[in-house]
Amino acid sequence: MILKPFAFAALTLSMSIAGAAQLSPIEQKIVAEVKAHSEQGLQLLERSVNINSGTMNHEGVREVGKLFRDQFDQLGFKTRWIDMPASVQRAGHLVATREGKQGKRLLLIGHLDTVFEKDSPVQLWKRDGDRVRGQGVNDMKGGDVIIVEALRALQRVGALDNTTISVMFSGDEENAGDPIEVSRGDMVAAAKRSDIALAFEATVRNKEGKDTGTVGRRSSSAWELEVKGKQGHSSGIFTETAGYGAVYEAARILDGFRQQVIEPDLTFSPGLILGGTETGTDDTGTKGQAAGKTNVIARTAVVKGDLRYLSYEQRDRAHAKMKAIVAQSLTGTSASIVFHDHYPPMSPTPGNLAVLKVYSQASADAGLGEIPALPPGQRGAGDIQFVAPLVDSLDGLGAAGNGAHSPDEDLEIASIERATIRTAILIYRLTR
C-alpha cells in the first residue's frame, strides 16, 4: 500500500496530541460558544431543509447554496459559486476559502443536494421531540450546518485567524454530473492545495451505539452483461442443436458470480435483468422492455448491476473472475461483460487512521467518548473518494440519524451539538 503524501505528518501530529488529557482554556471557550448557539444552528438547519434541493432542482440547489454562502460571508471567508457547463446538467458548487500560514491546510466537504426531487411527497421539516424529520435532514444538511457552526465557534474566539481552510459544498453528490472530470475537477484541485480532507456525511452508529469515523469507503462502479442464445422451439431446449438459451446462460453466470467472486468488502448486485426474444432499455438504462413466448427459447438477455470494492487490486481480481465465468458459455450461447468505474475507492490508509485518532481524542477530551473506525464495507460511495487518493481523509463527521434517502429520514437533534463540538476542537488542533 502506498502512503499518501501527508500520512507520516498526520501520524506525528496525532501522537503529539494523543497525550492531551483535557481541553485547554481556549478549547473550553470553543465548546461554550457551540453550546450557547446550538439553537441558532438548528434554525439554520430548518431553513435549509425547508428548501427542496433535489439534485435536478437546480434552482433549489442554488437557493440552498445562497443560504450557506451568506453564512460563510459572515465568517470572513471568500466565497464563490461555480457554475457547471450546460452539458453537465447540474446546478454547480459553493466554495468558501480563507488563507493563512499556520497548521494544516484543511478541505471541508459537504453537499447541497438531496435525493428528494421537486415533486417528492416527502415532507420538508417536522420536529418530533428530540428528533426531526425532513428531506436531506441527515444526508447531509445536518453535516453542512455542523461545518458552519464549528467555524462560527472558532471565529468567535479568534481561532480562525491565520488558518487555511477551504470548504466545498457540491450541488450533485447524490447524482454526480458527467463527465466526472468536470463535475469534480474543482474539488480535486482544492484537495491538491490541502493537507487533510474532512467530510460531513452522517455518522454511522456501531453495534455498541457509538458514533464512528469513516476511514474507508467502497467504490461505486457498474457492469453490463449481454447474453445471446439461439431462438427456436422450446421443446428443443438443452439439446446440442438448440442449446440452452439466453436466460439460462444469464442465470448460470449470475450464480457463478454469487459462488465464486465473494470476498470481504466486495459486493456485486444485479439491479435490472431482461430476457426473451427481444429486449431493450431506455436512454437512462434504468427502464426496459422485453418480449417473448413460453414456447420460444430466449434469444437475448441483458443484466445491469453495480460492483463495489475497497481497492483497485480488489476490483481487478473481481473483474478477472467475472470475465472468466462469463467465458464458460453453455451450449448454443455466448456472452460479454463490460465495466464502468464511477466513484474511486477510499482505502483505509494509515494516514486516514491518524486523522481519526486526532478526532477521537478531541471527542474524548470533550467528554463525548472515543470514536472508533467504522468497518469500510459498511459505507457506500461519497464525494470524499475523489480526493482521498491525494490527501489524508476522514468522513462521517456529520449528524446521527436514520432512514437516509427514505420518507422516514430523520436526525437526532442533540447530535448536531455533539458533532459540532468534536469538529471545532479537531479543526482547532489541526490548524495550530
UniProtKB/TrEMBL annotation:
<protein>
    <submittedName>
        <fullName>M20 family metallopeptidase</fullName>
    </submittedName>
</protein>
<keyword id="KW-0378">Hydrolase</keyword>
<dbReference type="InterPro" id="IPR011650">
    <property type="entry name" value="Peptidase_M20_dimer"/>
</dbReference>
<dbReference type="InterPro" id="IPR002933">
    <property type="entry name" value="Peptidase_M20"/>
</dbReference>
<keyword id="KW-0862">Zinc</keyword>
<dbReference type="Pfam" id="PF07687">
    <property type="entry name" value="M20_dimer"/>
</dbReference>
<dbReference type="InterPro" id="IPR036264">
    <property type="entry name" value="Bact_exopeptidase_dim_dom"/>
</dbReference>
<feature type="signal peptide">
    <location>
        <begin position="1"/>
        <end position="20"/>
    </location>
</feature>
<dbReference type="InterPro" id="IPR001261">
    <property type="entry name" value="ArgE/DapE_CS"/>
</dbReference>
<keyword id="KW-0479">Metal-binding</keyword>
<dbReference type="Pfam" id="PF01546">
    <property type="entry name" value="Peptidase_M20"/>
</dbReference>
<dbReference type="InterPro" id="IPR050072">
    <property type="entry name" value="Peptidase_M20A"/>
</dbReference>
<feature type="domain" description="Peptidase M20 dimerisation">
    <location>
        <begin position="215"/>
        <end position="328"/>
    </location>
</feature>
<keyword id="KW-0732">Signal</keyword>
